[in-house]
Write the structure tokens for this entry.
Amino acid sequence: MRIVKGIPVVDGIVIARSFVLQDESYLLPPQVAVEPSPEWVQGEWERFQRAVESAKAEVRQVADELAQQAPLGEAATDVTRIMGFQAGLYEDPTFAEAVREQIEAGIAPEHAVSKRVATYRKQFELDPFTRRLLPDLEEFERRLLRHLLGEQRISLRDLKEPVVLIARDLTPQQAAELPPEWVLGFATDLGGKTSHTAILAQSLHIPAVVGLGHITGVVTGGELVILDGRQGKVVIDPDEVTLRSYEQRRERYSVLQRALEELVALPAETLDGHQVRLFANIEYPEEIQQALRVGAEGIGLYRTEFLYDERNPDPSEEDHYAAYSRAIELLGDRPLVIRTLDLGADKFVPEGLDHEPNPFLGCRSIRYCLLEREDVFIRQLRAILRASVRGDVRIMLPMISSLEELQAAKAVIEEVKGELRRSGHAIREDIPVGIMIEVPAAALMADVLARYADFFSIGTNDLVQYVLAVDRVNPKVQDLYQPAHPAVFRLILSTIAAARRHKIPVSICGELSGDPHFTLPLLGLGMRDLSMAPSLIPKIKRFIRSITAVDAGKAVDTMLGLHDATETLEYLDARAREIDPAFFL
Ligand code: PEP
Ligand code: MG
């Protein structure tokens, strides 16, 4: 048994065989232990040798082509080094011997190669010199596996049994396309708690653990694994006792899920009668049915940048319009908060933004729309405004960091309205234009911005990242990514106070709103509109129905006296366990 720890992103327990998704989006066939007859060993050994020969020939050819393109200088030296390294491994007798031994033990060569490379990887990581060679090692493995597997490659669509997917990373698009009937959970080397893939997994309700470091080097595929989405662990080849205890936890978990289903029709109301409205965050209109099924009162955040992907990197006005119309059709007259494009950094990176030295501080989001591609912004606004007459549509601007920016964006909206009016389109003249409060400057200037914005929605995912200077997707600094940091709490507090003073609605749509640890203080601060991944709505509703607003107010007083994230989190955790122990199985 082996346990690898990472970052929990979607709650749930899955017990299933592992499947490793290689970088090129293919999976190793399951590792089936065979009784190795001499004929089988010979056949597999020859298959391995053939793969080595053809991979070697390919490396030679690539090296020749590259050398012709860059015969002199640094590039040529690099090419020679990389190719020399790979060619060296193909010739290395100890590598071939290790693979041979595994084949003789009944392991298919692709798994033998993967295992051996995993051993090299561990050794390479120990030394700064060899660490530099890790990408070359990855490349060597990818190439050899490609030659070994040939037509045997399995795509995700070919899965025939439930699995826990193991991958280096998943793009949001890959996560969106996972077949839910077969991929019961996933675990990745990379990623952070609020990375877009994690957010999508939450929406799809697939238990997930990310930031595991090198799980792809530990799991080869086919092992029984336990994915613990609560504690952020993956247990590989569990022993009997561990397996039994997880089976019991899984059972308790499904009992809780069934209890949550029964809350769907009940209001989100505190024990002392305060009503809270729960909205859903979505990436695709198709999520709306599920959101309504679990009791969402509307959409508090529609992340429209998910319309962009490799297949459609430049959606037309009609693509936008069709998506918004579909969303409105599904929602009826419930509110739909459409966030304008938040492209770049952790989200889809359009052409032109791919080489920024510091993407999170770069020309992303509203800056991209105003400074770089106003045409793209206008295209989206036209579609939103045209759709606005069909339902309760609101516009929300992301990443606002100053009044000038808000005014510039509002000026573009006015221009687009004028154009549409002139060309005879019906539009909603008084469409509300709100902003996300996700940059510390906006939170600090909330009393000014509140005079010009129709509503606020606090985006804690970015707010935490920017106020604490911690990259939200970098696993190395995830322990420093602390939503419970008092600095975050103070910014939320002053934002709510500013909104109240200026009598504009304020809601919260960062991941914090779906974390029961924060329900008590958020209610205590007077927050009454929360927007979160649909799958979290029943859980938060159950929490709300177990607390009083009076008690929530007292929790805020206590928190104001706490000085760091650790003691704040300890306090919140103790309170949450007291309120609803069932969530802490
Ligand atoms: C946020 O930053 O909190 C937010 C809701 O937006 P996103 O996660 O899409 O950046
Ligand atoms: Mg954000």
The chain has a mean pLDDT of 90. The longest strand covers residues 13-21. The chain has three domains: 2-29+155-257, 38-152, 275-435+507-584. Residues 228 and 459 are 27 Å apart (CA to CA).
